[in-house]
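Model the whole thing, not chain by chain.
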Amino acid sequence: MRSFLTDFWHHARGSIRDLAPIILVIGTFQFLVFGQPMSGAISLVVGGVIVVLGLTFFIYGLELALFPIGETIAHALARKGSAAMVLIFAFLLGFGTTMAEPSLTAIAREASAVAASAGAIVDTDESRSRYVLGLRLTVAFSVGFALVLGVLRIIFAWSLPVMIISGYILVILVTAVAPDDIVGIAYDSGGVTTSTVTVPLVTALGIGLASSLRDRNPMTDGFGLIAFASLTPMVFVMIYGGVIQWI
Amino acid sequence: MDLILSAARIVIATAGDVLPIVLFIFGFYVLVIREPLPHLGRIATGLVFVVIGLGLFLVGLEQSLFPLGRLMAEQLTAPEFLGTNPVADAAAYSWQSFIWVYVFAVAIGFSTTIAEPALLAVAIKANEVSGGAISVWGLRVAVAIGAAFGVGLGCYRLVSGLPLHYFIMAGYVAVIIQTIWAPKLIIALAYDSGGVTTSTVTVPLITALGLGLAEALPGRNALLDGFGLVAFTCLFPIIAVLGYAQLSALRATLTRKRKSITDDPGKLRSLEEN
């Protein structure tokens, strides 16, 4: 119990340090630029304490659960020696976590409003919710696809820079033909797909896989999965926007 | 009391978001791998911690920093603060009118990235895998500098109204050129650091900033032009991390060179004579 408390305090101190910059920025602006004292100081302090507690618990859970799960599964799958199983797992993990991602649902709703005001879809609730679902499925599929591609790269030791740079070129080419309205949404959807729970799992999966295969370096081969997951949604969402508009 | 209720609601909502992932993983383990999951008790405790932690984190942010951050984004772009009304009088503003917006954008981009749990997770892993060669703080600060620059530049783009893809393409060219000379060890991590920057803390605040700016400017559609800041925040950390690795490598080479010169007195003398 004693060691748990010291450990907890150690993590909590780290969390306080992590949050200090935001508090400093917001406080400075409040005083210097607006010349107002911080309003509702008590609720601010209470909120700050809750944030620190939350971050501390999360980091704790990260090391107890999320990292071990990702690595255990990667090792177990590598032991079984079935590449197909690893690929299926990677696809389902990417697809499932992205469908469950709340910030993607939020951005998809805004995107449906843009599409409706641009006249790409009919402005009714039904067609808009169909558009939202279509967009979420597109992004979820593209993240699943990205993880499959990334795992294949780890297994066959394909060059990451060549693949990512080809992806960039593809983004630029698709941008040239995609409808203007969709470009901003597509570019942003790359960033919002990788959430706080998904990132540790996916990172641990990549590193676990690279360290259980022979001749792979976890540093150069284990990282890179997130990079694919933030690149492919851009291409797929632009294509989705184009297809919706042209039909 | 309200606080406890809303805390409970957000923790339950977080559990709802995490549950499908957990069920899928356990299901996969039981049905496909067919082995008992080691350290089940520890993992279950850890998952409870993750859910409670993430839930409390969001409750606390909603309680304190998010409302203020959003309010500031609105105030900074309001006509009274700017001293002119760009929507009514298009000739009266230039990109310099928004100087405080850029300062705020850079500061908030940096500080939210430092607080981002997903980035912390990747930094911990990178530190572990590299055997300590990559420091947790070094990586986070490099990513945060990139994100700060990205948000600032993204705001400038919104004000200037230049097309989004010009900036993104220029960024891609920079990444490609840096990749050629960057130390091989860092490349994969650098590419990953783009995607992990934009998550729980960063997205809500910079989205509010983007929407506020787009509303304050003439001829902009908040829905359409408010997008794009997240993309900037994803791209520039890649450049910053690659640059950080290049600088470290360069410094190491220079130190080695200087050392070889001081170790060799003849070489040093000939340098002094010149």
